[in-house]
Amino acid sequence: MTTPTILWFRRDLRLSDQAALIAAASEGPVVPVYILDDDTPKHRKMGGASRWWLHHSLASLGAALRDKGSRLILRRGKSDTVLGELADDVGTTRVHCIRHYEPWWRNAERAVAQALDLVCHDGNYLLPPGSVTTGSGDPYKIYTPFWRALKEHMPPPDPANRPRDIPAPSSWPKSDTLADWDLLPTKPDWATGFAQEWSPGEDGARARVDDFVSEAADYDATRNLPSVEGSSRLSPHLHFGEVSPAYVWHRTMKAGGSVDVFLGEIGWRDYAQNVILQFPEYASKNARDRFDPLPWRDLREAKGDFAAWKQGRTGYPIVDAGMRQLWTTGWMHNRVRMIAASFLIKHLLIDWRHGEQWFWDTLVDADYGSNAVNWQWVAGTGIDSNMFSRIMAPLSQSEKFDAGDYIREWVPELAKLSDAVIHDPDEHGCRPKDYPAKVIGHREGRERALAAYAKVK
Ligand SMILES: Cc1cc2nc3c(=O)[nH]c(=O)nc-3n(C[C@H](O)[C@H](O)[C@H](O)COP(=O)(O)OP(=O)(O)OC[C@H]3O[C@@H](n4cnc5c(N)ncnc54)[C@H](O)[C@@H]3O)c2cc1C
Fold it and tell me: Which of 69, 124, 320, 332 is 20 to 30 A from 431 in CA distance terms?
């Protein structure tokens, strides 16, 4: 077969263990394409931090393809329209892709399949979302039984190597230039701290896996300590598909030691996709509709508090450290994400959907399923979630998880404070002048949240 085949990349920006690439390359010449599509996701188009990551990941993928004598074609527009045009340009109807589960991608796959011969493959999750079901054939709603059932099918198949050759077409269709897409911020360039933290792309992802496996045995003991680099920091690499979860699974298992807790977190990632498959509007609707009448504060009235939260100026050191880490690096420690999200929802009584949107824009790992599932988990509105009435106390969480060094790193105003006082400088009467007072007292915030909850209980 000499007619070219299109390989449609989205959040699967890798050459290894890439089932769509393997299938396309086995059929003949391959035309790899990435389409910058802000139309299909509409208000769910990628946020600023994700666009920064995407730029560098595409640069890396393009270079890896060139090494194989291939290219990455860049086009912009609505995916089904652009794929139709590209198919005409190269004289084919055949397209391979990795299946995606965000509602807009499912719609796009349906639209493409009406006009072209689209073949979807699995590979971005441990198991295809929707394939693990209860005895009665229903999808799981709760994480623990879901994970127990999924593990029965593990380990995942051995990850496939990159194909030795990627056959090139006799001529290449036209392509945009990456720099013209303006994915990087300029005025102001708020991403200067990102480059120090991250190496987007498949090589960077594999290096991150290598680093992590050497310390994976300590994961359980250190993952909740924000001052220690105890977790893998693989989330943006996994989100953009620069490494497959099957690869991560096998590399981690080879490292030995007890890695069950870590693999269980990879399981949360699979679980989140199963949730959005069942509830496509999970990022905008309470899964438990009894929470719909909860009297959130009007954002016009709460504008100042919301701004203080986003800027890391709430007067709660652990929350502020997390929000500043997020702004500077595009990532926040998981324990601190929970504390900061809980603070917004409960202490500030601001609707979780505003927080979800802020994370969507500022996280390099912003993921439709994982973000929504975790926000609803913290809010207590999800199908599997914490109880609303369990209100995290940010100050004691900060002490319990020994966040002193973390706070000193991200809140320089507090850098000189000792562990004994740093978690709550107000309480100890040693708040520096340039650090804000608490936007609300812990007890006051807690009581207001419980009063609001009483209305929907
Ligand atoms: C409010 C809130 C919002 C979040 N939004 C996102 C998001 O948009 N994208 C995202 O990937 N994660 C999100 N998380 C989950 C979690 O915080 C991050 O996955 C984790 O901090 C990433 O760091 P890591 O790679 O070092 O994780 P590790 O602890 O090393 O875990 C390994 C991998 O497992 C997955 N994972 C771990 N915890 C979770 C979890 N709770 N839910 C789903 N997957 C998980 C990630 O892919 C992660 O890379 C959110 C958590 C909270 C509380």
Answer: 332
